[in-house]
């Protein structure tokens, strides 16, 4: 038994899993001034608040290393969908997209051109959000606004390359351009970025060869930064993973392989082999994903302007750019004979070709008509039980890759299962016999170590009091049969309390806007 005069919060009678992978135990945990001050089988102190965790599991707050919330937080810092999974920390700026360099107007332009925010959001943010002109300026905006989650940030290679080279260019940067990109990485790292990210499957990063990425990764490595990569999938998953490993070896930098599909188990073996020979590498995967649901106005934005389909050339360009047309699903059609069916099926019944059907649909008067690209369950992230080698690989963590979407217009662009990434991952691992303590390690201390978040990811004295308290028997996200495909706001269940820096953000299932989140840099530094 440990005794203290007083503490801010005392959590009693819980099953404590500390994030290290060690066996859990029943006990108490005390918090004061945002830090854990004691963990023991029994603690006595005068507490401002006591939470009885009998029958519940007490864990470190979960860490999501792969999200895109850097612009979302400008509109809302609630992050309910994360708190209801037990997530307390996110790493943003993935896939080569980030909030630097140059002005906020430049970033909004980039994000809108890439279809990552709507044109309406771009114009609204320019009007109502304070402007910034550097990484540190952006940090000041978020600090003044507040957030319920801890957030760390990567520097996006795509945004940097696009800004310096003046749009997406299919060429190498000049010597002077490469120097500018390198300087901007140096500046961002000095201001507190965690590292750099690439999106090598799409422009502009896809036009960067391996040597370009190595050169720029060396700049981040000097600051103990990380290289996180949406790998070059079009050359083959295994070969793309090998490229990421080569970059890590040549630059001497830590490597995070982002959202790797479990359909290529040998790629996970390649990552483990690289780690065993000295490359500091890890991997995240999306446990389950639907295709992307996009309302027709957002589909236009991703492909061509809405005005352009009024011309024959615009229609031809549109139809050429839509991928996998036959397999697109349509929803919100106001026609039960069409609803949630593929264009191929509908066109066959109507005895017209798919291209004609698409144009008919896009020209109709239904403003809520939406298309699903990839179907209810994506083949690359099917939510099926993992292969044994993936389950046994100690370097595998969750990265939800939740799509940007619009806080004030959630039906414009959404996905169904990523808001349940953590309970889905837990369920998939438990199906394969993984110990709960190991599951928790994969989503707490593993990402904390990988991203150098040294005061997070474990329940221990003097660590930040990021804590989640869960009813593990009811930690859950709806299945294929249960999910409402028209509802973009489905949340996970089972988390009772989520505590961020000692403040209760989810309180017995009720969301609180406490804005206790901190902006994190490497090795315990706060921004």
TrEMBL record:
SUPFAM superfamilies: Composite domain of metallo-dependent hydrolases, Metallo-dependent hydrolases. Residues 49-200, 430-504 form the Amidohydrolase domain. GO terms for molecular function: hydrolase activity, acting on carbon-nitrogen (but not peptide) bonds, in cyclic amides. InterPro entries: Amidohydro_3, Metal-dep_hydrolase_composite, Metal_Hydrolase, Metallo-dep_Hydrolases_sf. It comes from the Bacteria. One of its GO terms (cellular component) is cytosol. This is D-aminoacylase. It comes from Desulfosporosinus metallidurans. The lineage of its organism: Bacteria, Bacillati, Bacillota, Clostridia, Eubacteriales.
């Amino acid at each position: 038994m440990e005794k203290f005069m007083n503490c801010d919060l005392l959590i009693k009678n819980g099953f404590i899993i500390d994030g290290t992978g060690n066996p859990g135990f029943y006990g108490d945990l005390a918090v004061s001034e945002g830090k854990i001050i004691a963990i023991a089988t029994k603690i006595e102190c005068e507490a401002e608040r006591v939470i009885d965790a009998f029958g519940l599991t007490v864990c470190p707050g979960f860490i999501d290393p792969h999200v895109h919330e850097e612009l979302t937080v400008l509109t809302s810092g609630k992050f309910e969908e994360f708190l209801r999974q037990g997530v307390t920390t996110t790493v943003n700026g993935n896939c080569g997209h980030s909030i630097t360099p140059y002005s906020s107007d430049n970033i909004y332009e980039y994000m809108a051109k890439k279809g990552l925010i709507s044109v309406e959001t771009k114009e609204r943010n320019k009007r109502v959000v304070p402007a910034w002109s550097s990484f540190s300026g952006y940090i000041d905006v978020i600090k003044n606004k507040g957030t319920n989650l801890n957030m760390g940030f990567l520097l996006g290679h795509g945004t940097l390359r696009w800004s310096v080279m003046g749009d997406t260019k299919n060429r190498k940067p000049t010597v002077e351009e490469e120097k500018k990109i390198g300087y901007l990485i140096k500046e961002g790292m000095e201001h507190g970025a965690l590292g750099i990210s690439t999106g090598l499957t799409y422009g502009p990063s896809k036009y960067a060869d391996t040597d370009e990425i190595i050169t720029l990764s060396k700049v981040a490595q000097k600051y103990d930064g990380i290289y996180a990569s949406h790998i070059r999938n079009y050359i083959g998953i295994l070969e793309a993973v090998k490229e990421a490993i080569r970059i890590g070896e040549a630059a001497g930098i830590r490597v995070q392989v982002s959202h790797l599909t479990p359909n290529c188990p040998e790629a996970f073996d390649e990552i483990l082999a690289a780690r065993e020979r000295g490359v500091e590498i890890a991997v995240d995967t999306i446990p389950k994903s639907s295709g992307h649901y996009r309302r027709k106005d957002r589909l236009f934005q991703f492909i061509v302007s809405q005005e352009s389909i009024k011309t024959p050339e615009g229609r031809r360009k549109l139809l050429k750019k839509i991928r996998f047309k036959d397999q697109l699903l349509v929803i919100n059609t106001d026609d039960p004979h069409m609803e949630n069916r593929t264009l191929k099926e509908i066109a066959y019944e109507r005895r017209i070709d798919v291209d004609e059907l698409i144009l008919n649909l896009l020209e109709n008067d239904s403003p809520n008509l939406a298309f699903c690209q990839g179907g209810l369950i994506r083949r690359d992230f099917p939510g099926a039980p993992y292969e044994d080698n993936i389950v046994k690989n100690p370097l595998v963590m969750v990265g939800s890759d939740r799509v940007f979407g619009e806080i004030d217009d959630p039906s414009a662009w959404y996905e169904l299962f990523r808001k349940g990434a953590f309970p889905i991952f837990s369920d998939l691992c438990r199906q394969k016999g993984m110990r709960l303590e190991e599951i928790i390690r994969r989503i707490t201390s593993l990402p904390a170590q990988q991203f150098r978040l040294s005061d997070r990811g474990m329940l221990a004295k003097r660590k930040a009091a990021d804590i989640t308290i869960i009813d593990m028997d009811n930690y859950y996200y709806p299945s294929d049969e249960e999910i409402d495909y028209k509802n973009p706001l489905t949340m996970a269940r089972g988390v009772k309390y989520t505590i961020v820096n000692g403040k209760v953000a989810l309180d017995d299932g009720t969301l609180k806007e406490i804005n206790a989140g901190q902006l994190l840099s490497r090795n315990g530094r706060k921004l």
